[in-house]
User: Fold this.
Amino acid sequence: MLLAKVLTQDGAAPWQTGLLLATASAGSVASSLVLALSADRLGRRRVLIVCGCLMAVTGVVFAVSKCYPALVAAAFVGTISPSTNDNTPFSGVEQSILAQTCELSQLTGLFTVYNVTALAAGALGGLAVAVLGLQHVTSPGHAAFALYALLAACTVGLFLALSPAAEAAGGRPPADACGTAAPVTTSRLPRRVRWLAALFAVDAFAGGLVVQAVLAWWFAQRYGASTTQLGLVFFAANLLPALAQLAAPLLAARRGLLAAMVVPHFISNLTLACIAFAPGLGSAVVLLLIRQTLSKIDVPARQAFTAAIVEPTDRTAAASMTSLARSVAVSISPIAATAMFTGPLGAVGAPLLLGAALAIGYDLTIWRTYRSTPLATDT
Assistant:
């Protein structure tokens, strides 16, 4: 939430803010690719610990430095994200760990707990921003990144506590004919999974146009929202989808994984388009909260859907590669969003309208493409 504001206070131009957000997302892309190809071979716990350490170092750099090149470098290696989302390098590995712990029929419920916990934590982060905005000892942004570094160190401790059961079955990927461990690749993944990754990329690009950092900047510039107001708004904007996501298992059980993915997501994007026409801060906040409440219900169903259409041995690759596709798209859209906000298109909320239109197109396409696809949970 404070990332764009910190850069603005340090004298960064809007294009520099967009570039740093894109660089951060590009770093997530590179990390996701490395983890997808090597996590099962090198050890899932080991690579998660390394990512957590890089995250802690990045928090320290952002807390103490105003040097733009140093911030860009740290953003690339440190899993800084412009939003609270499931597109981080951790996601694919974590999801593959979870997927091997229960039956496929229980995955939606398990992923719901996983995502609700993350969204609730993100909501507390928004509340922390509101509190930091009230103190005058130091800049709220730099204080937030010091806390970010501390929490990253705690994350490393949690990864260290993971049991050996978190590793891939057998500890290594299948061997080839020569006895050499075969790398995880996407070539053996079904064509429908590769197409699914492409569709996820479209959705992620659309969401990247209105990531939390961009929305916070939009609310501050368009409606004059203060740091404390933004903290409270985004506390609610992260807490409500966490609560709403509890409905995902019930919706998936009654209507199927695909309907649980598409229907709430479609309605949320119609609401997103309406935010661009809100006359004041109050109405914009109400629309934002409605949109946020519905926007994340699809996530557990989407993760379970991805796991259900591949063999168990391919789940790390499938989860990582679909997450990678989303991260690639998200790395591009912040530059487009900031460019549109600083020009005449900003007056009509062009990033919000374009993001909504692309996401609605994704919803319609994925429904038409996969509505007849058999799932492992169906048998």
Residues 170-187 have pLDDT under 50 and may be disordered. The chain is about 75% helix and 0% strand. Residues 111 and 300 are 5 Å apart (CA to CA). Residues 14-42 form the longest helix (29 residues).
